[in-house]
Amino acid sequence: MKVIITSDKSNGSKKGFEIFEKSIANGAKVIGLATGSTPVALYQEWVKSDMDTSNLTSINLDEYVGLAPDNDQSYHYFMQKYLFNEKPFKKTYVPDGIKAIKDPEGASDDYNKIIAENPIDIQLLGIGRNGHIAFNEPGTSFDSVTHEVKLTDNTIKANSRFFDNIDDVPKTAICMGIANIMSAKEIVVMAFGDNKADAVAKMVEGPVTEDVPASVLQQHQNVTVIVDQAAASKLS
Ligand code: F6R
């Protein structure tokens, strides 16, 4: 793993965007995208840029079960707001959170097919404080593919900051599995702030274990980790 320590989130996000720019200039066409607070500044760099995205396909990591694309807490909506409204892609994919209400397996199978037909060239990831990637919580099999996930109380609590009421946070999500993420040719993980320091140290230097989903990335050939000083503070 290559680790880049930047002075702050703003510089880290610029660095992250440069990696995407370079990869796209070198022919990457299928871009794996993430939501959450971490990638927002990178998307702002993207929107400011003059990059033509009309030939690109995007595949997002996850979506809440039960939220329609026009729900302002859905990940569909997030992506429209922060990136796609300004930078239209040729095709964008986010798991179908409505189909998943009645048919989570069907929604998951559809997504695995989409990923198989559109192999991901470069994947953006954030990391949870417990080392989760996408909604793959500790204990998720490294062999997992897209599946329905029951969100942990901690994740529901962390994500409740985006909702009016913690009871409004969906209890399940459809999420790419670890094997889908590992199939990307290149991966960029970003983490900022001291509340990510433990997870970053375990991801980069800890044992590779399903107890820390992000530790699997040590087994990938082309991963860049971008952290600020605070998130890097527990690296040796
Ligand atoms: C987002 C996602 C999550 C987040 C992680 C960190 O699509 O899948 O794994 O990357 O929870 O969230 P933030 O960036 O809000 O700290």
Automatic annotation (TrEMBL):
Q: Supply the source organism's classification.
A: Bacteria, Bacillati, Bacillota, Bacilli, Lactobacillales
Tell whether Transport is among the UniProt keywords: no
Gene3D superfamilies in the cross-refs: 3.40.50.1360
Q: Which SUPFAM superfamilies match?
A: NagB/RpiA/CoA transferase-like (SSF100950)
Recorded catalytic activity of this chain's protein: alpha-D-glucosamine 6-phosphate + H2O = beta-D-fructose 6-phosphate + NH4(+)
Q: Which organism is it from?
A: Lactobacillus helsingborgensis
Indicate the segments forming the Glucosamine/galactosamine-6-phosphate isomerase domain, all copies: 25-224
The kind of enzyme this is, by top-level EC class, is hydrolase
Name under which the protein is recorded: Glucosamine-6-phosphate deaminase
User: Belongs to which family?
Assistant: Belongs to the glucosamine/galactosamine-6-phosphate isomerase family. NagB subfamily.
Q: Which HAMAP family match?
A: GlcN6P_deamin
Q: Which residues form the active site?
A: 62, 130, 132, 137
